[in-house]
Amino acid sequence: MAARPKGGNRIGLKRWVRRGITIAAVLALIPAVLTVLYMPFFVHPVSTLMLKDLATFSGYDRRWVSIDDVSPVLAYSVIMSEDGQFCSHRGVDLGELRGVVDDAIAGEATRGASTITMQTVKNLYLWSRPLGTVRKVVELPLAVYFDAVLSKRRIMEIYLNIAEWGPGIYGIEAAAQHHFGVSAKQLSRRQAALLAVTLPNPITRNPAKPGPGLRRLAALIERRAGRSGAYVGCLQ
After folding, report:
1. Is 50 helix (H, G, I), strand (E, B) or coil?
2. Any bridge partners for residue 62, and if so which?
3. 167: which DSSP letter?
């Protein structure tokens, strides 16, 4: 049998490379276009986890609510718990990111450096696990773009309406009703703090039945939210 020409192999490789570039460009275009479409207040985005629940017929509870109908102390508590520099950074907290890189180089355990904006784009466009490092590489430029296109107030509004607060519980209105039997607008300072400290692990942390550690953390966030001042100025 005659040997396959090397030129044919090169042509085939170039074809696959072109296809790969085209697919990557299309995938990159999707969140870029969706971000612009998410600018109007009447658009109510859903997260990839919500889509997964629909696809697996699990169902979920999410009741979209305007940020104007959310107790301000809830948003303040989320900022003080999740991303203290939310109002000052441009989607990525470079100071925190440098700290993570330095820790990784030194061989030390790395801490989380996800901003609220990064968590929002992850929830809207990306996946949680596996390939977390690959996801972070995609997440960073998306967060910068997202922050450049949308206002801080709109970013917070979307985040509060797609964040997971328990199995099948998405968004602050559903969370407030499920855990405390009140609307998002009626949340007290302590309830807001408990919901905020639940966010890092909403499957195992229950704000309605907090243990001693969660209560102590909530008390700390409640105090910080009460003195948040300029840290939350972009929402006022």
Report:
1. helix
2. 170
3. T
CA dist., res. 66 & res. 95, Å (int): 31
* Residues 70, 172 contacting (CB under 8 angstroms): yes
Kindly state the greatest CA–CA separation across the chain.
80
Q: Is 227 left (phi over 0), alpha (psi -120 to 50) or beta?
A: alpha
Chain centroid, CA 166 distance in Å: 15
| pLDDT tens digit sequence for 16-66 | 767 767 676 676 788 999 999 999 999 999 999 999 999 999 989 999 999
Give start and end residues of each alpha helix (H) in 111-211.
116-125, 132-149, 152-162, 172-180, 189-198
Q: Within 10 Å of residue 159's Cβ, how many Cβ atoms? A: 26
* Element housing 24 (H / E): helix 6-37
Residue the block writes with tokens 């890189």: 101
Instruction: Compute the distance between CA of residue 19 and CA of residue 73 in angstroms, rounded to an integer.
Output: 49
Considering only CA atoms, give the Rg of the chain: 21
Cα–Cα separations (whole angstroms), residue 234 to 48, 93, 120, 137, 172: 27, 16, 17, 27, 20
Instruction: Report, as an integer, the average pLDDT of 220-226.
Output: 96
User: Phi and psi dihedrals of 55, rounded to 5?
Assistant: -65, -30
Is 0.90 topped by the overall pTM?
no
Find where tokens 């801080």 sit. Answer: 152
